[in-house]
Amino acid sequence: MKPFIVRAAIAALCAISLSGCIDSASPILSESQPIFGPRLTLQPYGLRKGHAHNPQQVNFNWNGALYAHAGGGLREVSAFSLHPFGASDYIIEDVPAKRSRISEFALLHKIAEGVHQIIAIDEADADEPTRAAYCSKGDKTDSSCRTETRYQLLAFARATAARRKDDGGRAIRLPYDAQRPERAVRRWRGAMT
What we know:
The chain is built from three helices and eleven strands, in the order αβββββββββαβαβ.
């Protein structure tokens, strides 16, 4: 499973094995917009067997082209962009911190206001002719399906969207200035004389 999807499910971000995720040697989607505003705070968590795992809080700032990691968890995601895909869905193009030239892709599906499902775009969702035509193997240690064009990516994104998966992860969008609840402070009062 790719950590970005298990945690963001980003994202994260890819509950998918490395052998099934789509990637590209460089970003292939352009004209990203700050869809969620200039600052974004998410609480992503993985979803396995109906239970939430590994909740975190992470901040991103729009840098003019991407949402760049600005603090919190998901350190392996240095930046990502969002691209419209259908009525309330987006394609996430992730730029991992450790492999900055490799972009990974996921679908972001709105479940309710401020709540999104994140599912890795998976080559296994497409039929064999699509995989044969659009997957290049790239470096055998890096990718089982490397796409090179927007058209190829969209073919796999449509196949994953059609599967209506329940796995992956969830991300709750929080107000940017959301703080962790302060711990109750116990104050001792001195004896009055």
